């Protein structure tokens, strides 16, 4: 059977077989962020390792920048088997299920070691929820700490009132609303255009996405807060995963474990470098001021309490495990 990728997608097939002689499975892997971002570069390295560790049985092609499926469509594509594998920022799923906000609770885990602990605490319950959505997580990788991009100096919520700010998930929309701003949900791939056309006049993100989107062309100020480090993750369709023999599963998991660790280390290594690039391109990059920080801390405390109330036992299990570490 020889199917082109396009035809197999049209048929809704999870896996396309190629007539290479060997029985390699060709997997298309949609990713949401720029090809040159470390998340996407690790996707390419992951595909290489998977080919190596599965003896060529699984041949993954990376499609970065939302080119195959836009960021907002990747989860559904993998769940339904339109794509066997894909990458997405996990907390974007929180509009369907609040458990996925575990890594967007401001001031709960603010450093790389704390973020790693929090993932270890969250892993069990999160994987259970993913399984119920027909997904298996292979690896996760954090973004650097989150901060605020503006066109002007901002010292407190007063300066944010009425400002249209781009959000990337429910939690960032909550932060923006709590500050009195107006959230606009926009994928990173569309961010440059949104800033150019005045759809948004700022956003919450790490130095990484500001650098990727060259936002100094439109914005002037970055305020470091680093109150949370949201994670991207690579997910596989559960049916596809369960259809693999155990050796192939082990090969994929070994590649995933190595890439998850390497991607996390790269994120940490680049976090200061991104700030330097923003500065080198003319932006002011400073710590958020004391009044703004205090306001954000109050918002974070409310968000933590609301998340615990919304997630019940599973949220409590994550929080208790994390606090006990
Ligand atoms: N960059 C992504 C999510 C978090 C981050 O640092 C974005 O802005 O879409």
Architecture overview:
The chain has 325 residues and is an alpha/beta fold. It has 2 domains: 154 residues, Bacterial extracellular solute-binding protein, family 7 (D-Maltodextrin-Binding Protein, domain 2, 3-Layer(aba) Sandwich); 125 residues, D-Maltodextrin-Binding Protein, domain 2, CATH 3.40.190. Helix content is 44%, strand content 18%. The protein is built from 10 helices and 12 strands. The strands form 4 sheets. The protein has a 4-stranded mixed β-sheet. A 3-stranded mixed β-sheet has the order 1-2-3. It starts with a helix and ends with a helix. The N terminus is likely disordered. Pyroglutamic acid binds next to α7.
Give a summary of the structure in a few sentences.
This protein has helices spanning 5-10, 38-53, 74-79, 112-132, 170-178, 191-196, 207-212, 238-242, 246-280, 290-323, and strands spanning 16-17, 25-30, 58-63, 85-89, 135-142, 147-150, 164-167, 182-185, 203-205, 221-224, 231-237, 284-287.
């Amino acid at each position: 059977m020889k199917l082109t990728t396009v035809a197999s997608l049209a048929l809704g097939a999870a896996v396309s077989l190629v007539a290479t002689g060997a029985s390699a499975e060709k997997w298309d892997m949609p990713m949401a962020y720029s090809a040159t971002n470390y998340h996407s570069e690790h996707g390419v390295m992951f595909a290489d390792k998977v080919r190596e560790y599965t003896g060529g049985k699984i041949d993954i092609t990376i499609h970065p920048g939302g080119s195959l499926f836009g960021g907002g469509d990747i989860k559904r594509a993998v769940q339904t088997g339109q794509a066997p594998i894909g990458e997405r920022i996990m907390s974007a799923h929180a509009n369907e299920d609040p458990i996925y906000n575990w890594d967007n609770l401001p001031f709960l885990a603010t450093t790389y070691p704390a973020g790693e602990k929090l993932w270890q605490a969250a892993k069990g319950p999160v994987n259970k929820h993913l399984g119920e959505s027909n997904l298996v997580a292979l690896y996760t990788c954090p973004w650097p700490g989150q901060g605020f991009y503006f066109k002007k100096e901002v010292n407190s919520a007063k300066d944010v009132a009425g400002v249209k700010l781009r959000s990337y998930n429910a939690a960032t929309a909550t932060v923006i609303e709590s500050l009195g701003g107006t959230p606009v949900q926009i994928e990173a791939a569309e961010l440059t255009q949104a800033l150019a056309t005045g759809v948004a006049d700022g956003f919450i993100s790490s130095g990484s996405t500001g650098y990727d989107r060259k936002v100094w062309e439109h914005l002037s100020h970055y305020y470091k807060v680093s109150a949370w480090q949201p994670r991207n993750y690579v997910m596989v369709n559960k049916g596809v995963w369960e259809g693999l023999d155990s050796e192939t599963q082990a090969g994929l998991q070994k590649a995933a474990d190595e890439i998850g660790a390497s991607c996390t280390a790269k994120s940490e290594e680049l976090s200061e470098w991104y700030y330097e690039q923003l500065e080198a391109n003319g932006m002011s990059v400073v710590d958020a001021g004391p009044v703004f920080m205090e306001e954000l801390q109050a918002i974070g405390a409310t968000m933590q309490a609301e998340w615990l109330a919304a997630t019940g036992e599973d949220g409590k299990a994550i929080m208790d495990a994390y606090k006990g570490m």
